[in-house]
Write a structure and sequence with these properties.
The protein has 280 residues and is mainly α. The chain contains 11 helices and no strands. It has one domain.
């Protein structure tokens, strides 16, 4: 189901909401980078094609691992979906966290953080290379725990659809819901390049795992958020957007000394914090 999240109904809703946000920003005289949005559409098309190319590999891997599960939970049991939701959410948290803290995974994930504005369409600016980087391996333990790949895929689609609505400055804080759910306020922090906000708020639908594992940060009223990468990417070329961080990784790998240094380059932390120019 590689295109399930790009169904006509969902895409129609995306366009309608994005247009509403555009006029909302214009009314408040806030900038709206139309060229960047068009670039995001180009990236989204490429990402859809890459998902189609890797879908069979990922599904086969999930099914293969699921076949070894000691206990397989029935798809027609509502408890399977409740358990699956929390299991997928937990896996997503770690997948997302490692995508920020391991450079090999960050080379793909940096695509999503490249926009310099926080507007709804950037939710669709996703990597072309996640199938290659292998970030999907974090879902394999969920399959091994007995959750069917159909349930895993469906829950992940719901997870990503929910997150679309987090990419906005239009919605403020949501009171008590901020304690449990990932909200636009939490996700603005996640997309910030301010050094005090880096590598925070990795949850999908929930924020509870960030609170448990110490990666939560609240949005501060006294600090202007600077969005994008710590070294801003200004290109609107979808190919540059999709591969710029892989190019940086290849350059540093070429300059590495020996196998040990090469592994440290690939599996070490991304070079981001030292580049932040935002005032904290």
């Amino acid at each position: 189901m590689p295109y399930a999240e790009f169904s006509p109904i969902f895409l129609g809703l995306v366009i309608a909401i994005a247009l509403a946000e555009y006029f909302w920003r214009r009314k408040r005289k806030l900038a709206y980078d139309g060229k960047a949005v068009l670039a995001t559409i180009g990236v989204a098309v490429g990402q859809g094609l890459s998902k189609l190319a890797f879908a069979s590999v990922i599904v086969y891997a999930l099914l293969a691992v699921y076949s070894f599960a000691t206990w397989q939970f029935a798809l027609d049991d509502w408890r399977t979906w409740v358990l699956g939701f929390f299991a997928v959410e937990f896996a997503y948290y770690w997948q997302h966290r490692f995508s920020h803290t391991v450079r090999w995974f960050w080379a793909s994930h940096a695509v999503h953080h490249s926009p310099n504005q926080m507007v709804l369409p950037i939710a669709l600016r996703l990597s072309w290379t996640s199938g290659i980087s292998g970030v999907w391996i974090f879902l394999l333990p969920v399959a091994l725990a007995g959750i069917h790949p159909v349930a895993i895929g469906t829950i992940m689609i719901v997870n990503l659809r929910y997150q679309f609505f987090l990419h906005t400055e239009h919605i403020g804080r949501l009171g008590p819901l901020e304690w449990i759910l990932n909200t636009p306020s939490h996700h603005r922090v996640h997309h910030a390049s301010n050094s005090c906000y880096l590598d925070k708020n990795f949850g999908g639908i929930l924020i509870v795992f960030d609170r448990i594992f110490g990666t939560y940060a609240a949005e501060r009223r006294d600090l202007k958020i600077v969005y994008g990468l710590t070294k801003p990417l200004t290109s609107n070329n979808p190919i540059v957007i999709a591969f710029h961080e892989w190019g940086n990784l290849a350059r540093d790998l070429k300059a590495s000394y020996g196998v040990k240094d090469a592994f440290a380059t690939v599996l070490g932390k991304p070079k981001r914090a030292a580049l932040s120019t935002a005032e904290d």
